[in-house]
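Lab meeting minutes (informal)
Scribe: AK
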Amino acid sequence: MQHIDTLTTFVPVVGEDDMQRQLRKLGERDENMKTRTRMGYVLVSSATIPGPQFTTFVDTFTRTDDE
């Protein structure tokens, strides 16, 4: 059986003074992606959607269970 999981991350668009906040959100995305790969998921697509206040990342993973 195939399982599909989607990870959505909203990263704020910030000025130089608030870069740490942006980097923290990117780090959270990275950790969430690593967690899914440890669970046996494989990244099949990533989409980036720019916006005025946030950049949205949508990552789609699949995992196939042997039955």
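Next up, CB showed the second protein from the same session:
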Amino acid sequence: MNIFMNGLTRIVILGFLALNLCATAQAQTLNWIRNKADVMAAAKSEGKLVLLLAGRDTCSNCRTMKNTVSESQNPPIKALLQQNFILWYSIVDSSPDYRQYIAGMPASWSLPLICVIDPNKPNEYLSRSTGIQKADTFYQRLLGHVNSRPSPPTIVSFSPTEGAAGTEVTIQGSNLSNVTSVQFDGVDASFSVQGGLKAIVPPSATTGLIVVKTAAGQATSTTAFTVITGLPGRFSVAGFADLLLQRQDSTMAVWLLEGARLVGGAYLDPLEPGLDWKVVGRGDFDLDNKPDLLMQNTEGSLRVWHMNGIKLKNVRDLNPIRSLDGRPVVGVGHFNDDQYPDILFQHSDGSLLVWYMNGTEATSESPINPVAPADPAYRAISVGDLNGDQKDDIVFQHTETGTLAVWFMDGPNMTEGWILNPSRPSDLAFKAVAVVDCDKDGKADIVFTNEREIAVWFMNGANLIRGEYLNAVFGESNWNIVGP
């Protein structure tokens, strides 16, 4: 008796569950949107087609198509609609939006009007019919539209998996040739499909999923791309090097490097010093163990932004405020035995001059010995210790041939002058723009750019050890590297 009752109980319970499941499935009716703008926006966003049903609630044919044929599970019309279409139900007595799809039809046409529409061409239809369609015929019609569409994209992987704004990310998957947009956590990014899909992490991006959209649909990565935006309270951290960047509108930013890998970055606060002012060097002018920025304007005047990490503390004009001839600054380095950074200038005739500084006060000046390269087309790029003797050297590049040279210095005196080995990049579009110890081996390296790509020559004195491309490019061509 107990066994019989337990079995009966199970039958009753299972029957109850089956009834509930059936009721739930019936309750999940299709979602019909009544506003054209909302329909087209949703279809574009999800990469789906639009199915328009124009009719009246009092029309029996319309009710049949909407509530019976479209809800059919055999053939699986309902599932096909849910996966591939955004549904639009237009009431003909209250909305005129359906009328643009009846051009050329006889006056005796009958409700409902059924149109399949590509949301990228919202004022045209791919197919149309009027009146009731049998379920089998309607299913084959819809399936034909689905099968003729390009396949939606997929994302299999992306590399690198983390980086700062400006990092170039390679996205791998399928159907990634007709891409309309790439987003990092909802922020639109610039991208290229030549040689594979590559996207540039936008400045305002945050950590999140990558979304690729095409006319056939969209794909979302299964893992998040990690955006590195945080900087410590100073530019340089143990194991990292810095690059200073400035845009043509004078906006400033700093990138943190680990070798040829961009690992962090941030805009400076405030963002810009004014259109007439450019960053020309970096050094600790107030000896607080935090780098400051040397600025020069178009008239040759000089000032220091005393910084607390990426935030401005105060501004001090130099004394004197400019050299007598207003010559441009090459860079900031150490050319005597005190702790204060000094300033190197080069005249248009090639002659070099150093200001010995005490904070923002120039205590004296001295020409470099020799005063200039024999060929004035050699222009000083920047200052850095290439041979690891803890004395700053001067790096030059010939403006016509691209040949690179270094003066190994002892204070203001050149001890040796060498053409680099190799003497220049194989691609002359790359120009040397900064001298900085990227791999923190105690010997400065040389940074090049062709205004989009960035490369690093890792140096041992005048000899190239290896060259590597940075894992980031300039998403905007108006950024410049202005120094270490």
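CB comment: Helices lie at 2-27, 36-46, 60-69, 77-84, 135-148.
No objections, moving on.
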